[in-house]
Specification:
The complex is a heterodimer of chains A (about 500) and B (about 70). Chain A has about 500 residues and is mainly alpha-helical. Chain A contains 24 helices and 2 strands. A two-stranded antiparallel sheet of chain A has the order 1-2. In chain A, helix 6 packs antiparallel against helix 7. The radius of gyration of chain A is 22 Å and the shape is globular. The radius of gyration of chain B is 17 Å and the shape is elongated. Classes of the chains: A mainly alpha (about 500), B mainly alpha (about 70).
């Protein structure tokens, strides 16, 4: 029997959703620019300061991944899900060190995407195309994760069927189309306030109701509370945990949406300053991860009221069930709206970023070389719609037991652009053709591992010298990629004498 | 000008080593994969990593300051 509709929660939820929709369309007028220019539509005119960049980058980190995917993994698998915390610890030193260089060279040369940079740096069109296609394809499962998160909370309101999700999706598509990056940047402010309210309430009310953190941890089965220790010939969960964290951190700022967030900032200090202050988000992320354990402690899994939800959404329903159990209806509306809007903002940034990539690096490069800025911007707007449909394909095609696997799959692909983009920021000794073959080997190996795991996980057990070393497939495939890239570079550079073109100069990076 | 930048580069290279600290502290899982010492009922595994979020930011701040000074 389906639970009755919770009208109070639905009205609050719908009102908040309507409010951000208005904000989204209004955003086109904010710091008004000519939205028929790609840098205006797709990078907000590169005018965002520390505060807006904080919200925008925070929007990249704080998504349905944080609120649904990570707690779900904690709820179902225990300690391994906490890898999200070391992941965010590693992200900021990387952001601080590497990405101001990308910002500087992009400002100097007018780059909008990572593929623009690779094209300019290495003067190699196929390599730039590989980077662009990888960005677009890797982002789709990440957008899919956002849609799964939205679907779960809408289901939690007692509404069944796909219609509400379709409506949310159309609204998202419409205001992204009309306002570009200004829309998610403005909504991100509202979203963060809602999320802070939800987190503070959740972290005060729920542990209090459950009798404190000690009791919460005590209710977690002992086998799940820590990482499984190594056995005689198997490193157990330990290597999986560390490689998940490191691989995810290396992958994050290679995603087109993260690069869009970075390049839209007004100067490189904005990025450095944000690397110092953004960890405030991570603390909340760690506490939200623990919602998975609170869901275990509350016993929602065995309550008949939530049986339908768990049956429909699996473990992904843990956090919504916990909120339904703990909060009054009106606040359920607020909390669910914050999760849904928290999924909407990154989905918008992601589809804009993919649109930038397609327009700049595929359409203008291969399909129509001469096009007016207005035409370019129009193509980007239409692409932002197509990318969202691609995300739907991932939802339909892949198992959703753990939504987090969608994001981990994207990571396997996007991290293969690391040698060309990140190493490329420091040196161009690597040969572009070697990088291309390295990329292809990484993509093939990573995808192969994901397939052999049935897309149900991302930790692939490697067999090294009689040891079984479980490792995040993104990282092991990246190692292969780097070995191939470096090895072939030595060979190709020895054979070829001609100087390759590099349109950037050392001074552009500082 | 270039000489200046080079000198500055040498000066804050040592500070940059701080950026490795969070990796050293958290990558080696066996170091913190235990329940004890627990803090108010929270197992070591959890509070240790939460602590490193704060320490990780604390480590970035002096690097940021040093770079600002070097550019002035």
């Amino acid at each position: 029997m389906a639970p009755p509709l919770d009208w109070t929660a639905i009205v609050v939820f719908a009102a908040l959703f309507a409010f951000v929709t208005v904000v989204g369309f209004f955003a086109a007028r904010w710091r008004r620019g000519d939205l028929t220019q790609l840098a205006e539509w797709g990078l907000g005119g590169r005018r965002f300061g520390t505060v807006v960049t904080w919200f925008l980058l925070g929007g990249d980190l704080y998504t349905a991944y944080t609120f649904i995917a990570v707690p779900t993994l904690m709820f179902g698998s225990g300690a391994i899900g906490f890898y999200a915390v070391p992941y965010t610890i590693f992200v900021y030193p990387i952001l601080f060190t590497v990405f101001p260089r990308l910002w500087s060279v992009s400002r100097a040369k007018g780059y909008v995407t990572a593929a623009d940079f690779v094209r300019g740096r290495f003067g190699n069109r196929p390599l730039a195309l590989a980077v662009a296609v990888t960005g677009i394809v890797a982002t789709m499962p990440y957008i899919a994760l956002q849609l799964v998160g939205m679907g779960v909370v809408i289901g939690g309101l007692g509404i069944h069927g796909e219609l509400p999700l379709v409506i949310a999706f159309v609204i998202l598509a419409a205001y992204t189309y009309s306002s570009g990056l200004r829309a998610p940047a403005m909504i991100a402010v509202v979203k963060d306030m809602l999320i802070y309210v939800t987190i503070v309430a959740a972290l005060i009310v729920i542990p209090h109701e459950l009798g404190g953190y000690a009791k919460i941890f005590a209710s977690v089965p002992p086998g799940k509370l820590l990482l499984a220790p190594p056995t005689a010939d198997n490193l157990g969960q330990q290597s999986g945990y560390a490689t998940l964290a490191l691989g995810s951190a290396l992958a994050l700022f290679l995603y087109p949406h993260a690069i869009t967030g970075l390049l839209s900032s007004t100067n490189r200090h904005v990025i450095k300053r944000n690397a110092v202050v953004l960890p405030a988000y991570s603390i909340a992320l760690g506490l939200i991860a623990l919602l998975g354990y609170m869901a275990i402690a509350s016993g929602v899994k065995s309550m008949p009221a939530y049986a339908v939800g768990f049956k429909t959404f699996g473990a992904n329903f843990a956090v919504p069930a916990l909120f339904l159990h703990m909060f009054p209806s009106w606040f359920v509306g607020v909390a669910f709206a914050s999760i849904a809007i928290g999924a909407l903002v990154p989905a918008a940034i992601m589809s804009i970023a993919c649109a930038n990539l397609f327009t700049r690096n595929i359409y203008r490069e291969y399909i129509r070389k001469v096009c007016t800025p207005a035409h370019e911007s129009q193509v980007a707007k239409i692409t932002s719609l197509v990318v969202k449909l691609g995300a739907v394909v991932f939802i339909l095609a892949l198992p959703k037991t753990y939504a987090i696997n969608l994001q981990l799959l994207g990571g396997i692909w996007i991290i293969q652009t690391l040698p060309a983009v990140l190493i490329g920021l420091y040196t161009r000794v690597l040969n572009p053709w070697a990088l291309l073959i390295g990329w292809a080997s990484g993509i093939a190996a990573g995808t192969g591992m994901a397939i052999s795991l049935g897309f149900k996980g991302a930790i692939y057990p490697l067999h090294i010298l009689g040891w079984t070393v479980p490792c995040y497939a993104a990282l092991s495939a990246l190692v292969l990629n780097i070995i191939v890239s470096v090895g072939l570079s030595v060979l190709l550079n020895a054979l070829a004498q001609e100087a390759r073109e590099d349109e950037t100069a050392a001074a552009d990076y500082v | 000008m270039t000489g200046n930048a080079k000198g500055a580069g040498k000066r804050f290279r040592l500070v940059h080593l701080l950026l490795i600290v969070p990796f050293a502290a958290v990558l080696w899982t066996p170091f913190y994969n235990s329940s004890e010492p627990s803090l108010a009922g929270v197992p070591f595994f959890y509070w240790y990593q939460m602590l490193w979020i704060v320490l990780g930011a604390a480590v970035l701040y002096p690097v940021y300051r040093a770079e600002l000074r070097a550019e002035e």
